[in-house]
Amino acid sequence: MKHIFISLSICISTSLYAQSYFSYFTGDTTDVNTDADYGICLMGGSTEDDRAMKWFLEKANGGDIIVIRASGSDGYNDYFFSELDVEVNSVETIVFNNDDAANDSYVLQQIANAEAIWIAGGDQSVYINYWKNTEVENLLNMHINEKQAVIGGTSAGMAILGSSYFSANNGTVYSSEALEDPYNTFMTFGHNDFLEIPLLNNTITDTHFSERDREGRILTFIARMNDELGAHSFGIACDEYTAVCIDSSGLGAVYGEWPEYDDYAFLFK
Q1: For the domain that residue 113 is a member of, what is the CATH number?
Q2: Domain count, the chain
Q3: pTM to 2 decimals?
């Protein structure tokens, strides 16, 4: 069969007045179904580690990659499709402009068909407000728990993958503020009410870790979890150029440029 490969940008509107999302598509428009492998890729922000991203793409076994985000554009398309020497069928970035996109039939179809889902950086409060209690949330959980396929995210995309998450609904919080008052107005959380990733049960994640001096705040995150959930809680944090990749057996690998650079991951228990 002859495959036609295309690289295009599509702006699709669900009304005459407002575009609920943009779609940027690279690759073969014919959907394929491959036997995707399970995995979780936690990337700490800033530039991605190529080895971690190859690990992520290889889990799709030549399938279709979806990038979902609420800002930016097609920065991942060529990188995932042709720059990492991992064969995939297509890469599509869907940029959510508002929460209407979470009910759009095309958006839902593309997420459902994906063999790998990547959540870009941005603002996690927007992701939660757009996707929580929608069909997007259901499809993400089906992707993880029924299709048993790979999911990953960087920065805000990593921040929402734990069973507990810092929602940033009132903006970010600094370590000094969190340590001074663990119940201050910026310390907004969700517990067990969004994404369901069994390997991240009772776990919260944090990003840009050493670069933004976030040691104090993750300790208060975990203390809040212990108090509110009444269970022993855990944390995973990554520096900006560092990734933690976890396979189906629960075995994790850390990718970074240490010892040339101070790239670290941190596990709290």
Answers
A1: 3.40.50.880
A2: 1
A3: 0.92
CA distances from 84 to 53, 79, 147, 194, 201 (A): 8, 7, 25, 31, 31
H helical segments located in the chain = 50-58, 77-82, 105-113, 124-131, 135-145, 156-159, 175-180, 215-229
Cis omega (within 30 of 0) for bond into 182: no
The pLDDT tens digits of the residues spanning 83-127 come to 999 999 999 999 999 999 999 999 999 999 999 999 999 999 999
Rg of the chain over Cα atoms, rounded to whole angstroms, equals 18
Q: Which of 166, 253, 255 is nearest to 214 (CA)?
A: 166
Domain enclosing residue 56, as ranges? 5-268
Among 157, 150, 224, smallest CA distance to 186 is for: 224
b or e along 96-120 (b: 16 or more beta carbons within 10 Å of the residue's beta carbon)? bbebbbbebeebbebbebbbbbbbb
User: Residue 148 in 3-state DSSP?
Assistant: coil
What is the tens place of the pLDDT at every residue in 131-175?
Answer: 999 999 999 999 999 999 999 999 999 999 999 999 999 999 999
Distance CA 79, CA 10 (A): 18
Long-range CB pairs of 194-198 (<8 Å, 24+ gap) are 194/128, 194/131, 194/132, 194/137, 194/160, 194/165, 195/137, 195/140, 195/141, 195/144, 195/160, 195/161, 195/163, 196/141, 196/144, 196/145, 196/163, 197/40, 197/144, 197/151, 197/161, 197/162, 197/163, 198/145
